[in-house]
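Discussion board: Methods & Data

I've been asked by a reviewer to show the raw model output for two of the constructs in my manuscript, not just the figures. I'm not sure how much to include, so I'm pasting the format here to get opinions. Each protein appears as its amino acid sequence followed by a line of discrete structure tokens. Is this the kind of thing reviewers expect to see in a supplement, or should I convert it first? Here is construct A:
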Amino acid sequence: MTPVRKALSLTGAGILICTLAACGGDDGGKSGNANPDNSNAPSDAGTSASWILGTTDPVVSIDPAGAYDIGSWNLQYSIFEQLLVIPAGGDQPEADAAESCDYDDPQTVTCKLRADNKFSNGNALTSSDVKFSFERNIKIADPNGASSLLGSLTESKGDAAPTLVDGAIETPDDTTVVFHLTKPDQTFVKVLTTAAASIVDEETFPADKLMDSAKVIGSGPYTLSDYKVEQQAALTANTEYTGTRSGKANQVIVKLYKEPSALRSDIGTSKVDVAWRTLSAVDLADLGKTDGLSVLNGDGSEFRYWVFNTATATGKQLPVRQAIASIIDRAEITQDVYDGTTTPAYSLVPPGFAGQKESFKEVYGDAPDLDAAKKFLSDAGVKTPVKLNLGVPPDKYGDAAVQETNTFADQLKASGLFDVTVVSDPYEEYKENYREGAYDLYMLGWYPDFLDADNYLSPFLRDGGFFANGYSNDEVNSLLDDELGATDEAARADAFGKIQDITAKDVPVLPSWNGKNSAVATSQMDGVEETLDPTYIFRIWDVTKKQ
């Protein structure tokens, strides 16, 4: 998931706009409100007490065509259905709006929909709505959206924006959707599990512009009954829902915080039952000692890394990049900055993913090697100390990221080989600055769009990646094509390994650490720990509060 994940504002600790009993409505499901009198409601819907989730993840848009960030996506997963879904703790797609999605061949995927699908306003959900949703996302191509994930259905001509290929999506009947891909793509069925593939009602959503977030409707386990920008979203169990993800609580409030300190203050009070993303390692340690609270940890796939601009005078020098890769002390960063809540990363691909290989450890070792760094530079005749601008956005990743940057800078300075200047810029400026070459080396973070090693390689390495850092390697591009098209898992793993080896040698990107998926919950909450997995999907529908 791209690091365009972003900052909103909130006054104080956040104000609960309406009481848990009063939020919502009874207008027959119009404008996203549930209809409590609907006789088709699942028997287990809304049986748990209402509860409150607090998060510092901002919400850019609840319209699926307008967001590519973890805060927005997690609301969308509750409000909309996708064709497929990843269950808690799983890594393979399962049925959601579709009963199945299968490859007919490497470039054709056929999905069969459930016949009883319907939106919260009562409209039937058919293959036509699926086609409309994909076409709409690609057509709008919102800069904050995730239409790029649907690239296997599009083509580009010159500098023009990608457009849907004629005939790319066919709907032979109301319950069948056939996707014709422009290239073999073994990740496409996993793309169908992402919020980018959320299904919207073609009778409700405009085809060429975003819908007001407060007015969205879907077919998921919850409806949006109230939304206050930068403050909160109120979700009410969708009584029209016919799938397998029925909301166990009648209502859930998602409170949006700007400052982690405010979220920390509220967890455990009547204001917040679960705090998920993002509290510091110090906060988590302290809260773990608080009566009535539990710090819960699951396997994560959060990834922090450094990007070289290979077009700057410093960044373009391979020996300089290799020397820095020899000096970084990941153990110091993970222990001193993150109190052991993260683990050193020696690959762009997190541990546990098929095809992962710790190529950076093989090339540079698992501890700093000053002699190796000196040799890289001296053999190439590079004069020292090398001037280096190190970039960080303090408002994006928090105080710990600033501490991490300063620790890394101190490591480089202590080597005597680098003259480092740390440059801190607000994230909105930072995004523009790194593309314009303001930093030789700069920090970014990543969460997966879907659980596949390709999602940690293609976005970073193909022709400069989404951050356009100037790196391009024809062999890497070819191997990326190979792994996308390979139907044999051993062949994919072999290609992944070769890509990671080349990346370690070329060092266009330098991995730093992998993080856990953590939350803090009161003793009344159940189902929180089970959803803390590498997808970073917080499955609101599975969480309950004891009455």
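Construct B, same format:
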Amino acid sequence: MAEPVSLLFRIETRLRVMSSSSSQKQSSSLSTPAALWRLAPFVRPVVWRFVGGAASALAAAVIALMIPLVLEQIVQGPIRTGSVGLIILGAVAVLLLGFGEALMVWLRRWFILKPSTEVEYRMRTQLYARLQTLPVAFHDRWQSGQLLSRMMQDIGLIRRWLAFGLILLVVNLLTIIIGAVLLFRWHWLLGTIFIVTAIPLWITGYRFEKRYGRLARQSQDQAGDLATSVEESVHGIRVLKAFGRGKHALTRFSTQAESLRTTELSKARAVGSIWFWLDLMPQVAFGLSLMSGIWLISQGAIELPELFAFFAMATVLRWPIESIGFLFSFMLDARTASDRVFDIFSETNSITDPEQPVRLEAPRGELVFENAHFRYQDAGAAERDLLDGIDLVLRPGETMALVGLTGSGKTTLTTLPTRLYDVTGGRVTLDGVDVRDMTLVELRRHIAMAFEDATLFSASVRENVLLGRAELDIHSEEGERVLREALDVAQANFVDALPEGVETVIGEEGLSLSGGQRQRLALARAVAANPRVLVLDDPLSALDVDTEALVEEALRRVLADTTAMIVAHRPSTVALADRVALLERGRITAVGTHSELLRTSAHYRHVISSLEAEEAARTGAIPIITDEDLEARVEVTADEHRTTEKEVQA
């Protein structure tokens, strides 16, 4: 029952902290162009395709601007003179211009489509690689939904902006500038009207950027929070159903969804306000231009064909002007998306390979903790280190059991040898070499782990078990031999009864298997890695008594020449060890054989008694006590009896 309750607590806790600082970073202090310029390294390999797309789009815009000039000549010449042949020739010219514009639009899409998807692919793969290299401490702080929304939604938005928004924004701005200059061709007053009526648009656009940028970031962060909520609820669906908390989770989800809806409505209102000005000001410009044009004709300043051409040009410019609001908001969305993606790229990776790594050609497997300290990054200044000066030596080929009460730091200690976390003081060495002086690839080839919470991937049994043997062809005879040996040790031959045997694809996180089956496959994965040091965090907790006995017997053979550190939560696990280390409040307070510690450490006896009580409650069995244990306990009892007699006599 403890595990479901713990999972439910984590689900509810994560739902309460959706606005955590790690996922709700503010937009960077960079200007929008500078923020978007960070995309340049991803675009650079295909920049000429983007240049071609921009050139095609600009050519289409220029052709569109030529049409009013041709119409002016048609109205002023052939239509005024009534020359049918020239009118037809003019119509053909306009048709050809229209065809040329359509061709340039097609070329723009042809140039842009492939490189934009390449940029998306490159960004997505590099971001995934970045997530793989960032330390576990990073993933402790970040919600999975936030990472997922950046990986999929934000990068997809950036791709669409590069392919569509950026090109059209640049081209439409150039079209407006060129068109505005051409409007002065007919009369300075008409051009001035066009420029003056655009000033409110510039002011509104500036105010719009400030407001919309904040709302866009808030919306995308809330979408990430919502994705996290869905993911956690799906993963924890068994717990929610078991405790009847579906409505409770729905209420929390509805609250988050409503917050996102409110933000989206605020975004819509912001866009609506700028669209109001984008629709209003061109109409005002048309009205003022019409009145001014009629007056200018009456004064003989311009002719009717020129006024006709002016309005044809203004009509061509209307779409670029109206599109600026949409394209501007699109650019701000892309800027926010880039901020969110670069939040991850800019994270500092504290666990990296050394500049001059040390190699171990023939590791013996001596694992040593030398005054090792560790504290989590969010620990208060007044809190003591979780691991407060660990001194422990595991001799080559030795199996060391690690015992202690809950919260003593056992699991945390197991994360230090493979550098899932780095010590904050002291050091951990393998054969005398500081683990920080080795490459992560080599270190994790020599040291393998199996966790209590067995995580499997949506892949075949074979791929899951041989995950740690990158150098091995998993379908070769050698791969088959390693696979079978690992499955035999972990008593995981149940896989042969699966529909496709070892080629059966395991469902998401292995939830289609029982807890014991997942744990056995995780143990097989650690054994198959063939490490010099094996770190096991209570790997047998989900096994029944009979299977556990078989696994322990097989593990004894495997551990005969492998250094092993095993976190023991069950008395039977302690029996696997050559020696036992007692962890108490972040320190190793005693090391020795099981019998020695029973004789010399009252706290060890208390811990073992607790483990035996938990085991008896779990299995309903009477704890098994060996003759050696009994002899040690009798001696301890006699010592305590003699001490009591002396105290009475005194």
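Answer (T.O., handling editor elsewhere):
This is acceptable in a supplement if you add a one-line summary per construct. For B, something like: DSSP finds 21 helices and ten strands in the chain.
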